[in-house]
Write a structure and sequence with these properties.
mainly alpha; binds fe (ii) ion
Length: about 150
């Protein structure tokens, strides 16, 4: 799951590069791919990883499941907000508006970095330490199954 964070960063960067090129159609397409991937990732964590984390004792840590949920909600709010701003952006893109949008995106970038640290240093290491191996395999397989519902 942590490897997927690198993929989110890559997709977000592609979108930002397209914005710098002032190529709005490409920037919107890249943003949609980025946002869809990130939303799906957070949803799978909420449905399959956080329950296992709570069961393994995550509530007693300083990164409880409720905190992860709160950050996911913040991420989703950012995505919805940027989605709207991108849709409203007119061509040719005005310098001030472009800079404003990039500033707003920097907040999302920071939140992603913060969330990455929280999951990478707290949630996933805690799970590998406190969840027995068969349960870890089960969670990962459930996530994989949810992603590819046609897999046997
Ligand atoms: Fe994650
Ligand atoms: Fe997450």
């Amino acid at each position: 799951m942590m490897a997927e964070h690198r993929e989110h960063e890559r997709l977000f960067l592609m979108h930002r590069k397209a914005l710098l090129d002032r190529d709005l159609p490409r920037a919107r397409r890249a943003f949609t791919e980025f946002a869809t991937t990130l939303r799906e990732h957070a949803e799978l964590e909420e449905r399959h990883v956080l329950p296992a984390y709570a069961e393994a004792g995550g509530d007693a840590t300083d990164s409880p499941p409720a905190q992860i949920l709160k950050e996911h909600d913040k991420l989703r709010n950012f995505l919805a907000n940027l989605d709207r701003r991108l849709a409203e952006l007119a061509e040719p893109v005005d310098d001030a508006e472009l800079l404003d949008l990039l500033d707003a995106e920097a907040w999302l970038k920071n939140l992603m970095a913060h969330h990455d640290l929280r999951e990478g240093r707290a949630v996933y290491p805690f799970l590998s330490e406190h969840l027995d191996e068969p349960s870890q395999v089960r969670v990962l397989e459930t996530v994989r199954g949810a992603r590819n519902p046609t897999d046997p």
